[in-house]
Amino acid sequence: MANLLHARDINSQSYPDFLDPIETASRGYLDALQEGALVSTSAHGYRYAPLIRELWDGSGIKPSDIRSKADFQEKAPFLDKDMIRAYRDGRGDPSGGMSAAVPGETVYIGTTSGTTGDPTPVPCGRRSPSEESFARDQWYFGARPGDYMAWIMFTFRTGHRRRIMGEMGIAELLFSMSPAEMPRLCEASRIYRPTFMSIMPNPLILALEQHFERSGEDPVDVFKSYKGALFGGEPLGERLRNLTKSWGLELFENTALGDVCGASECRMRNGFHAYEDLAFIECIDPVTLEQVPDGQIGELVVTTLVDRLTPLVRYRSGDLVTIDRSPCGCGRTHARFKLLGRASDQVLVKGRSILPREVLGHVECHSETRAGLFQIIRTDREMDELALRIGYDLTRLKTDVAELHARLHDRISTAFDVPLRVELVDEQELLKLGPPHKIPRVTKQ
Ligand SMILES: [Zn+2]
Fold this sequence. Notes:
Layout: H1 4-7, H2 27-48, H3 50-58, H4 69-75, E1 79-80, H5 81-91, E2 108-111, E3 121-124, H6 129-141, E4 148-152, H7 159-167, E5 171-175, H8 182-192, E6 196-200, H9 202-215, H10 219-222, E7 228-231, H11 238-246, E8 251-257, E9 261-264, E10 272-273, E11 279-284, E12 298-304, E13 315-324, E14 336-342, E15 347-349, E16 352-354, H12 356-364, E17 374-377, E18 382-383, E19 386-392, H13 401-416, E20 420-426, H14 427-431, E21 442-443
Parallel strand pairs: 1-13, 4-5, 4-6, 6-7, 7-8, 15-18, 17-21, 19-20
Antiparallel strand pairs: 2-3, 8-9, 10-14, 11-12, 12-13, 13-14, 15-16, 17-19
């Protein structure tokens, strides 16, 4: 999908036909583009987003102080979701002080998915960065005009991504985010032979697994036309990746790039691609706020370079990541990041950092707990033992609950080498904690 705005400015000799020319732009080109865009985004945010103006005024910074990327990184104040929520609730401004209210520009109001609290409203214009990143991802995965796509309605916000599919000439088959829809998904897949699916979360893969086990339907036949499926909502464990692979369905993980747009992994499987013409990404120490060098763990900070309706400037995502700016084997030159988890989900047990992503593999490898449903119970930021609530499937018990408990306890305590307490519950109880696509992975009780 050609991005005409950028294409004529890029001195690219050749690029693969599954990428937009901007995706293979040189580092020098991207740096120059970001340098200019950071200056204009700063000025725009200050002018149109009252919260940004308040933050900058409070720090004694003016847009005219920002003349380069170096100025920006030295001076621009950070912004986070709590500040936006506080502004929204305190001032009665649904945009949380972030929206540039330009009459006629807002096409609809979406929301974030609400992973860390109540969903935040997101005004969207005619072509949002989220649509742009989604369209590029779909083109890379192989969706082409005339194709069908299975669309599982994820959150309200993703409505706009559906609109971009229409522009690309791709027809959607629509499904609710419900396990009960999976037989219908299989039937429609055999009739229309879609090339792609978005978005497939954990609970629906488990529902498909049960459907295939009960019905005897052949998953390889159901999914034979698919070039891939976007997976989102929660970390993707090895078991589900391998399971869907055995069905001939290749999963690509997708995540949010700090509420600025989406980010997906490519076939190289070495992190999520951040489109650096749409967003400027930084990695900081969450405590000192100092820049962290590429390759080291820090908090992802994102600044939109193009969104004029929600000009997030130096937005702290709360995600712990490592960034890699070396060119990727897929042909893209833009940065990739590995996602370790949310900073707010991190627990410290006897000084050891533990994130839900690290626990998943040790839970889903047992037949009774193959759904990977668990919660870390965090009573304090620093604790003396790791406390886990793990959901199991009653119908898959090999012997008894005590034996399963011992098996889980052995494996997890060996893996983390910290004191451990495991509580087993019926997995249906944990599923009730959804939104349907995910459950809270860290809880206070
Ligand atoms: Zn890549």
